[in-house]
C-alpha cells in the first residue's frame, strides 16, 4: 500500500553553550597559535542566555517570528533585538547551558565524564537521580594532563572532564567524543521536543540521522548510526535507525529518503534527526571580534522533522519533483542551481515563478559577513533569479524584486547541515496549511570536496506542496 | 588585461562563486601554469 508522504512538523533546539565556544575548531587552533589571550578576548564578547534567546534570528528559528520580519529589522540584528523574548516557541526552544550539560551527562553511556564534585552538588534537580562519577579538582587537572578534555571554560570553572575512550585510538580521543556527545545530546533534545508536541502516542518506526559527525573507533571511523543513539537518549523504543551522510545536503537527502520510505509503505512514521556541530562554535569569531560583535556562534542546534503518511492537511513531499545532483552534472553555481531548482520544476510544467518561496542555505549573514564570507542566501537567490531572467520569466531589472518575493533573509546559526533549507520548514508548514502558500522548494548543497575524496560538490532538492485534502 | 602566458597561478575557488577547477581551466587556456588549485567552503 502506498501513500503520499507529508511533513507534519519540524522542531529546532538551540543549546546556548558559551563555555564550549573555546572547544570549537577555530578558537582551539587560534589559542594553540597565539596563547590564552585568545580565550580572554572571546570571554569578553560572549552573550548571556537572555541575549541569545532574544536574538531575533533565534526567535525566527523557534517560530516566534516569521523570517520575513528580518527584512525590516536593521542590521546587525544583535543591536536591534529586544531585551527579552520567550525561550520557547511553536517551532522549538532555546535551552541554557545547565540544561545542555544535564543532557550531556545522560548521553554519556560509556561513563567517560568525570564531574566536578562542586558542579554536581550545585546542579540539583537537573542531574537528580543520575549516577555520576565525580572527581576532585586536582584529579580533574591530572586527567586533562593525560588527554582528557575539559568540559567548559578551560581557564575557569567547567563541569568536569571527558576521558578518552581509548588510550591509543585517535577516533576515540576525548575531543572527538565531546563533539559526538554534544551532537547526540542536541539531537535528542530536538527529538524529545518534537515527540512531546506532535503525535506522542504514535510510534516512530524509523529514525534517519543526517548530521555531519563521525562516530566510530579506529577500525570504522565514521561508522555512524547516531540516529539510534539519539532515539535511545530521547526515550524511544519502537524505532530502528540509520544515518544519511552528504555533508550539508544530508537533511534534504534524508527527507527525500524518509518520504520514499513512507510512500512505499515500509514505514508509517520516520523522523529525520540531527544534532549540532561543536567544531563550528566560534568559527567566525575573529571577524566578530574585529567588528565589535558578540560571539554569535555560541549555540549548538538540533533538529527533528516528522515525516508520515498523508493526513489530509500537512504539506506533501512531492517525490516526482525531487532532484539530486548527479555525478555527471556540472558543479558551477549556475549549473547546480539549474539542476536543483529549474529542471525538476520544468519536468512538471512549472516555472520558477510558480514557487512561492525557495528555501536555500539560510546562514545568518550577520555571522558570515564580518568574516568576509558574504551573504550566502542572497547569493543563492540572485542565482535563481538570474535563471528566471534567462528563462524570460522576468527581466533583468526584476531580479531584486524576485529575490524579495521568492527568497528569504538568512537566520540560521552556521551549524553546517542545519542551515540547509530546513530552518524554513516550520514556517513553510504554516504557510502551506493556514497561510496562502502553494509550493515551497527546499534546496541544499554539500561541499564534498572538503573530504579530499573528490572535486565534486553535491546537492538535493524537493518540492513541498499544499495538501488539497 | 593581465597577460597570463608563462605565469604561475594559484587558483583559489569558492563553492558559491567560481570553483577552483573553472579558474584552472581559464588560466591554463590563457597560457598560465596552475601550480595549486583548491575550492573552499566558508560556511
Automatic annotation (TrEMBL), chain A:
InterPro entries: ACP_syn_III_N, DUF5940, Thiolase-like
Taxonomic source organism: Candidatus Segetimicrobium genomatis
All copies of domain DUF5940, residue ranges: 339-469
GO molecular function: 3-oxoacyl-[acyl-carrier-protein] synthase activity
Name of the featured protein: Glycine reductase
Any Pfam family matching the protein: ACP_syn_III
Residue stretches making up the Beta-ketoacyl-[acyl-carrier-protein] synthase III N-terminal domain: 243-280
Source taxon at top rank: Bacteria
BP GO annotations: fatty acid biosynthetic process
Amino acid at each position: 500500500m502506498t501513500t503520499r508522504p507529508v511533513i507534519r512538523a519540524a522542531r529546532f533546539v538551540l543549546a546556548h553553550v558559551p563555555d564550549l565556544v573555546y572547544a570549537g575548531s577555530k578558537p582551539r587552533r587560534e589559542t594553540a597559535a597565539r596563547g590564552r589571550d585568545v580565550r580572554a578576548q572571546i570571554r569578553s564578547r560572549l552573550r548571556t542566555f537572555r541575549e541569545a534567546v532574544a536574538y531575533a534570528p533565534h526567535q525566527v528559528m523557534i517560530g516566534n517570528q516569521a523570517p520575513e520580519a528580518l527584512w525590516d529589522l536593521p542590521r546587525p540584528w544583535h543591536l536591534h533585538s529586544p531585551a527579552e523574548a520567550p525561550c520557547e516557541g511553536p517551532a522549538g526552544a532555546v535551552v541554557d547551558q545547565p540544561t545542555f550539560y544535564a543532557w550531556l551527562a545522560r548521553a554519556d553511556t560509556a561513563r567517560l565524564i568525570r564531574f566536578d564534585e562542586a558542579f554536581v552538588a550545585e546542579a540539583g534537580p537537573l542531574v537528580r537521580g543520575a549516577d555520576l562519577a565525580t572527581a576532585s579538582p586536582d584529579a580533574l587537572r591530572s586527567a586533562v594532563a593525560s588527554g582528557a578534555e575539559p568540559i567548559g571554560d578551560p581557564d575557569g570553572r567547567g563541569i568536569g572532564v571527558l576521558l578518552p575512550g581509548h588510550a591509543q585510538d585517535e577516533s576515540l580521543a576525548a575531543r572527538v567524543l565531546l563533539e559526538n556527545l554534544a551532537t547526540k545530546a542536541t539531537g535528542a533534545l530536538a527529538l524529545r521536543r518534537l515527540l512531546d508536541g506532535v503525535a506522542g502516542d504514535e510510534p516512530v518506526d524509523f529514525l534517519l540521522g543526517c548530521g555531519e559527525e563521525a562516530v566510530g573507533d579506529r577500525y570504522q571511523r565514521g561508522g555512524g548510526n547516531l540516529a539510534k543513539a539519539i532515539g535511545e537518549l530521547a526515550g524511544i523504543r519502537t524505532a530502528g535507525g540509520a544515518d544519511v551522510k552528504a555533508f550539508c545536503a544530508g537533511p534534504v537527502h534524508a527527507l527525500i529518503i524518509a518520504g520514499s520510505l513512507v510512500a512505499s509503505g515500509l514505514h508509517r512514521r520516520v523522523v529525520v534527526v540531527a544534532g549540532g556541530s561543536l567544531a563550528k562554535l566560534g568559527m567566525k569569531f575573529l571577524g566578530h571580534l574585529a567588528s565589535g560583535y558578540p560571539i554569535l556562534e555560541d549555540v549548538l542546534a538540533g533538529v527533528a522533522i516528522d515525516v508520515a503518511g498523508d493526513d489530509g492537511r500537512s504539506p506533501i513531499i512531492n517525490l516526482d519533483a525531487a532532484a539530486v545532483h548527479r555525478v555527471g552534472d556540472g558543479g558551477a553555481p549556475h549549473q547546480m542551481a539549474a539542476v536543483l531548482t529549474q529542471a525538476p520544476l520544468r519536468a512538471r510544467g512549472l516555472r520558477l515563478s510558480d514557487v512561492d518561496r525557495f528555501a536555500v542555505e539560510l546562514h545568518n549573514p550577520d555571522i558570515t559577513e564580518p568574516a568576509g564570507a558574504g551573504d550566502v542566501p542572497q547569493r543563492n537567490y540572485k542565482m535563481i533569479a538570474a535563471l528566471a531572467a534567462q528563462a524570460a520569466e522576468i527581466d533583468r531589472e526584476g531580479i531584486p524584486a524576485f529575490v524579495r518575493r521568492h527568497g528569504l533573509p538568512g537566520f540560521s546559526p552556521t551549524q553546517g547541515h542545519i542551515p540547509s533549507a530546513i530552518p524554513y520548514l516550520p514556517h513553510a508548514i504554516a504557510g502551506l496549511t493556514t497561510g496562502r502558500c502553494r509550493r515551497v522548494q527546499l534546496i541544499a548543497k554539500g561541499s564534498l570536496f572538503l573530504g579530499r575524496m573528490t572535486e565534486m560538490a553535491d546537492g538535493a532538492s524537493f518540492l513541498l506542496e499544499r495538501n488539497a485534502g | 588585461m593581465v597577460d597570463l602566458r608563462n605565469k604561475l597561478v594559484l587558483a583559489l575557488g569558492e563553492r558559491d562563486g567560481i570553483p577552483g577547477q573553472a579558474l584552472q581551466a581559464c588560466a591554463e587556456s590563457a597560457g598560465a601554469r596552475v601550480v595549486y588549485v583548491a575550492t573552499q567552503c566558508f560556511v
